[in-house]
Amino acid sequence: MNKPQAKTETGKVYCPICTHTVDAQVHRIRGRYARRLAVKPGQRCPHCAAPLDAGYIFRSGRAA
User: Fold this and answer.
1) 36 neighbors 15 (Cβ within 8 angstroms)
2) What's the domain range around 44?
C-alpha cells in the first residue's frame, strides 16, 4: 500500500543563526500521539545560508 504524500505549505520559520524570520516550506508530520509541523529538509536561510532544519516554526496560517 502506498504512503500518502505529505502536504507542504509555506510557513514562517525563525533562523537561529541570523535571527531573521523567513518563509520556508513546511509539512505536517503525523505521529502516534500528536501532529506537528517540520521544515522540509535541505532548505537554507536566504540571508545567511544556514540550514533551517533546526529553526522554530511559527504557527502556520490555515483555516480551521
Assistant:
1) no
2) 8-57
